[in-house]
Design goal:
Homodimer. Its EC number is 3.5.1.18. By secondary structure, this protein is an alpha+beta fold. It folds into 2 domains: about 260 residues, Zn peptidases (Aminopeptidase, 3-Layer(aba) Sandwich); about 100 residues, Alpha-Beta Plaits. It is about 30% helix and about 25% strand. A 6-stranded mixed beta sheet has the order 1-2-6-3-7-18, sandwiched between helices. A hairpin with a 2-residue loop joins strand 4 and strand 5. Helix 1 packs across helix 9 and helix 7 crosses helix 9. It is elongated, with a radius of gyration of 24 Å. The two termini are about 25 Å apart. The protein binds zinc ion. The site of zinc ion has 5 residues, from loops.
Amino acid sequence: MSEIATNIAVKLIQRESVTPEDGGCQNYIESLLAPLGFVRTSVDEGGITNSIYSRPGELKGTLAYAGHTDVVPTGPLEQWPHPPFSGLIEDGMLHGRGAQDMKAGIACWIAAVAELCGEYTPLPTIQLLITSDEEGDSIDGTIRIVEQMQENGTLPDAVIVGEPSSFKHVGDTIRRGRRGVVQIKATFHGKQGHSAYPQDADNAIHHATPALANIASIDWGEAADGFPATSCQITNVNGGTGATNVIPGFCEALIDIRYNPANNFNSIKNAIETACADCDVTLEFDHSATAFSTPDGTFLDLVCDSIKTITGIDTLRDTGGGTSDGRFLAAAGVPVVELGLTNSTIHQVGECVAVSELAMLTKIYTNIIETMRF
Ligand SMILES: [Zn+2]
């Protein structure tokens, strides 16, 4: 079983697929899944390869697995101990770009499904939602898959996102939510002039500073729901010409907010607007990621029970890290858990993963699929 996952992982790594290229990975995945009864629906958009592979189940309900075939660039090739697209195995380690993030994870899910189909185990409907645009802008990736499923009424009942969630051992950590991100550009307006003639000018920095002080002192509330407290950081302030005797006509500030699910975009927007209410200011908001949180309950318990059964580990239900494609599925109302390999070398030169991890993750995925009931 572990050999199947390893072989698939090697073949995926050997298909060069730096974002947004898929490099033939998804055609290869289709060749593996079609004999198991999966039908592929392509949702390609804007040069991105997106696929929904679906196998109708004997049991009710739909369990999905979400992942990506694209990888980040290699960086300097001469620094790699083995060529990044070789998929070379040495001393129990599988080397190559995508080994942890996240081609080997996809391979484990496919191996788990293949094993269960081979045993004629009754299964829920299984979907694989695979994009080649996760490491890039994610504009035409998983979000397009979700839109298509919303239109067709085929959204799953739960989804495992296969990102490398684990730290030291497979299954020691899952992600049950992620913070949201709001980024703001604030441009404070005034009127430029000579510092000796302030009556003819209007100092934009003098408007900006009290407003920024208001922003820095907004009370966003406490840590909530397993998340740290919302963080609001003023990260850049620029104003003035460089000359001491020129009153600045404008001042720009950049603000980065990482919010927990106790806050939301509208409450954040209102708070920032209120803090700047006394200013002539232009505020540009970019809500680049929505916070999500899968509540404690059956789905999380089942995933953690499977990990415990296979590994004996008690799993940390984490909410850390940046963003992931889980946010698009969560926004559509699908419970999301991220569970994958360890992440010690992701995006690094010399990315690699222990082959033994693939065996472990395949067993965990198999147990989850076997025990999942809707
Ligand atoms: Zn990834």
